Amino acid sequence: MAFIDTVMPRAATGDVRAMYERQERHWGYVPNYAKVFCHRPEIMQYWADLQAAIRRRIDARRFELVTFAAAHALRNTACTLAHGVALRRFIAADAVRAIAEGGPLSGLSEADAAIVAFARQVAIDAASVTAQDVARLRALGLSDGEVFDVVAVAAGRSFFAKLLDGLGVQADAPLRDDAAELGDVLIVGREVDPGPVEQLADASGIQA
After folding, report:
1. Which of 30, 92, 119, 135 could bridge across to 66 with cysteines, CB 3.0–4.6 Å?
2. Residue 201: beta bridge partners?
3. In DSSP terms, which residues pair with 30 in a beta bridge?
4. Whose CA is closest to 133, among 119, 154, 153, 149?
5. Cα gap 172→169, rounded to integer Å
6. What is the pLDDT of residues 91-110, one digit of tens each?
7. Angle, nearest 10°, between helix axes 131-139 and 144-166?
8. Rounded to the nearest 10 degrees, how much is the dihedral formed by the CA atoms of 51, 87, 170, 34?
9. What percent of the chain has pLDDT over 70?
10. DSSP secondary structure string for all residues of the chain
């Protein structure tokens, strides 16, 4: 689950419990990644605020495209699974798999394919980015502000993915189940946690 000890949902109080409650409202359970933030719940809030600020300036389709490409390049299974499913709302399953497999991106426009490649480059080796790389995106119709957004999304995902992998966080089993149509090609780093998910309350609604 993780390399550090975490507060179990049933034992959470105060700011940690409030953070777990927000996560459970979104996922239906307390995900593994949230548990490592029990030591610094304020960082989870800062991360949520940063994500919200970045997302306000980029359309949902491009956000998911860049996030998925960056997460896959960083070999973070949890983010790759979650955002592969989210990206599926905008493009076909075959196109998502093609991005993951590194094959021809026939289901994407030239601009989208360039954005995928650029997001991967930023995630893996941002120091290798050149003015020519940015100029190519401009030539394909992106404004300087839109280039900033792509870099911000990829860089932000690098922070989150490296934080989780550095602490040994495994993806929750429901993420793998949700991504079943996309196959195991999205399990790119750590294996999925085979254990059951945890909730703040049991099936009867009694607090654990």
Report:
1. 119
2. 207
3. 198
4. 119
5. 9
6. 999 999 999 998 888 789 99
7. 120
8. 30
9. 97
10. --SS----GGG--HHHHHHHHHHHHHHSSB-HHHHHGGG-HHHHHHHHHHHHHHHTTS-HHHHHHHHHHHHHHTT-HHHHHHHHHHHTTTS-HHHHHHHHHT---TTS-HHHHHHHHHHHHHHHHGGG--HHHHHHHHHTT--HHHHHHHHHHHHHHHHHHHHHHHTTPPPPHHHHHHTGGG-GGG--SSPPP-SPPB-SB-TTS-B-
Task: Look up tokens 């300036």; give the residue.
Answer: 57
pLDDT of 128-157, one tens digit each?
999 999 999 999 999 999 999 999 999 999
For 33-45, write each residue's pLDDT tens digit: 999 999 999 999 9
Of 74, 208, 77, nearest to 154 by C-alpha is 74
Burial level of 90, CB count in 10 A (0-12/13-18/19+)? middle
Residues shown for the chain:
208
